[in-house]
Amino acid sequence: MDSYIKPSSTGAAPAIISGGMGVRISWWVMARIVAMMGGLGVVSGTGLEIVYPRLLQDGDPGGHVRRAFTELARRHSALAGPVWEIFDKYYIEGGRAPGTPYKPVPLCRLARIENFRPGPDSFWELPREMQVLVLAANFAEVWLAKEGHDGPVGINFLRKVERPLPWALYGAMLAGAAYVLVGAGSPDELPGMINALSKHEPAVMSFKVHGARSGSGAFYAAVRPRALNAGGRNLPAPRFLAIVSSFGLAKTLASDPAARPYGFVVEGSEAGGHSAAPAMMTFDAGGKQTLVYTERDKADIGAIAGLGLPFWLAGAYASHARLRSARELGAAGIQFGTLAALSAQSGLAPELRSRVLKLLAAGELRVNNSLVSPTGFPFKVAQVPGTISETPVYLARTRRCDIGLLQAAYLTPEGELGYRCPAEPVETFKAKGGRVQNTAGRACLCNALLAAAGQPQLRQGGYVEPPVVTLGEDLASARALLAALPPGHETYSIGKAMKFLREA
After folding, report:
1. Where are the domains of the chain?
2. Which positions ≥6 away from 95 have C-beta within 8 Å?
3. Could you tell me the pTM of the whole model?
4. Residue 361, Cβ neighbours under 10 Å: how many?
5. What string of H, E and C letters represents the secondary structure of 278-294?
6. What is the pLDDT of residues 197-230, one digit of tens each?
7. Strand, coil or helix: what is 430?
8. What fold is seen in the domain 16-502?
9. Which of 282, 393, 419, 472 is 20 to 30 A off residue 98, Cα-Cα?
10. Each residue of 120-156: b (16+ CB within 10 Å) or e?
11. Which of 110, 76, 138, 139 is nearest to 223 (CA)?
């Protein structure tokens, strides 16, 4: 029998990393438990600037937001005023009245910074209120996950959600994040950003602008800590893990001293959420584009091991046997997502989790590759009644884009920045220069993922935004844990999942 795998000691690379999934599916409660049990507990940094205002409008259950904001204001007194202004703007004592929609949060729109650096490049930043909101929300999520223990806590970002990322990263670093994980795009700029922000120096990150002329200069989002009055002693620089799916990207990052990460999370095509596209796209009999992954799409693990940096394997590795095999291949360990997402301590709305687990227990849960994401990245969708995985539910929703995390920037005829999303009304997208064919089948993941986390927006006439559930293709471990539950129990704890991974 395989032996028990011990938790890593303080400072050592952990053998087990929890996935940074969805919008608050990987939230501070779950990450805190994983970290206390010797793993790397990871929170999702996606959309926290929407999540936290909604928590405040729901009355701040447990007082956790107030407690975290109090700590941020204590550490950085110059931020106290702006932080409490945000708190007061959204907080509702006792929570919203039934049937009341959430107050909208301003979209993350950038304004040009004049005279920042000489040259053809242009530099942009969020309005000050949004800078503070993004920073405070990410600080709070990491700080709450770290509260009361010394286990390692990390945060996960999507490179495609680029406009809030610099301020989110700084907020997480102010809270003492031990690791930063970034995927869904090349994260080559992150090491330099982390180094600059650890010294409270300005950090910049490029963002793509469709329609910009070649040679006219690059576009950068720039976070300026001293302009926020958030300086102080140097911060410990978190270890950066690049999420990759190929040896090519891993080699490129490892070969460049400015882009070299501490290590890699190597995601297979079975992993949930956004995935890299397969090498070849295929079409069904009706001409619809389909996603089929083959051996060509698998990362060369031996070659990645040869780069000499720590790496973890993700996607279908959530078992003790797979953890053993990963380590035999040279990996430091594994990252697990689906097993965590279906645990009782994930941020998935309890009623929705119950529906998913009943399908899983009955052997009826299916997870499909889809092109539903506005990003163009393939996206895993669990087929669950009442969610946008059902065609009637998808078609019944009025197309709108009122959160905008996945909007792409483009240059207007006047030379200003505009924003468009393939999930917005088709005619609106077309009027902004978007290609109509890119709207086919696209869904508003911003609203759907917030709904999955129990924060659905209410619309006129009582319409409630439907959720989307994203899981990995490997459901065997979650099914095994369910089968081992005592009678009357519907789900397992994240602690049992950790024990399942560590023990044969």
Report:
1. 16-502
2. 57, 58, 59, 61
3. 0.93
4. 15
5. CCCEEECCCCCEEECCC
6. 999 999 999 999 998 887 788 999 999 999 998 8
7. helix
8. TIM Barrel (3.20.20)
9. 393
10. eebbbbbeeebbbbbbbbbbbbbbbbbeeeebbbbbb
11. 110
